């Protein structure tokens, strides 16, 4: 079924996984005299449908499933606004942000319970728990400080040298978005098949 996840499965009312929308991400770092604030909007992520299942453990007595995924590559794009205050110097910029994450490891826990509908039982999953372990990353911002030919490239280098700061902010948002999407997809599928049909 993995190959169908990009566009979704209309006959089961399962939504498509691409692109994954993250909404808004806010970042604020540093003391008052050297402060960085940034807001990234309309973030779209492509690549989550290419996940590879590396390990799967199931406990049907408790309806629990634990699995490890590898996300080989995630590409994202959005719009940013940035404000940097260093003593009396204030620098601002806004434009496009693009980037990629490589080799993200992902631990997923699914817990479900049986629900009775008529004479049949169905499996319904609780909100999933997703935990990401960071791999490689690269980030690029256009039009930094109105396209300044010196500050723009220099700031992009600094951002990539300190990309863990950005990843600390985006990871929880990405984890929740993946968890919400995977939970919705799983429940759409299990709602159409009885427990006996899924696990004969």
UniProtKB/TrEMBL annotation:
<dbReference type="GO" id="GO:0007623">
    <property type="term" value="P:circadian rhythm"/>
</dbReference>
<protein>
    <recommendedName>
        <fullName>Circadian clock-controlled protein</fullName>
    </recommendedName>
</protein>
<dbReference type="Pfam" id="PF06585">
    <property type="entry name" value="JHBP"/>
</dbReference>
<dbReference type="InterPro" id="IPR038606">
    <property type="entry name" value="To_sf"/>
</dbReference>
<keyword id="KW-0732">Signal</keyword>
<dbReference type="InterPro" id="IPR010562">
    <property type="entry name" value="Haemolymph_juvenile_hormone-bd"/>
</dbReference>
<keyword id="KW-0090">Biological rhythms</keyword>
<comment type="similarity">
    <text>Belongs to the TO family.</text>
</comment>
<dbReference type="GO" id="GO:0005615">
    <property type="term" value="C:extracellular space"/>
</dbReference>
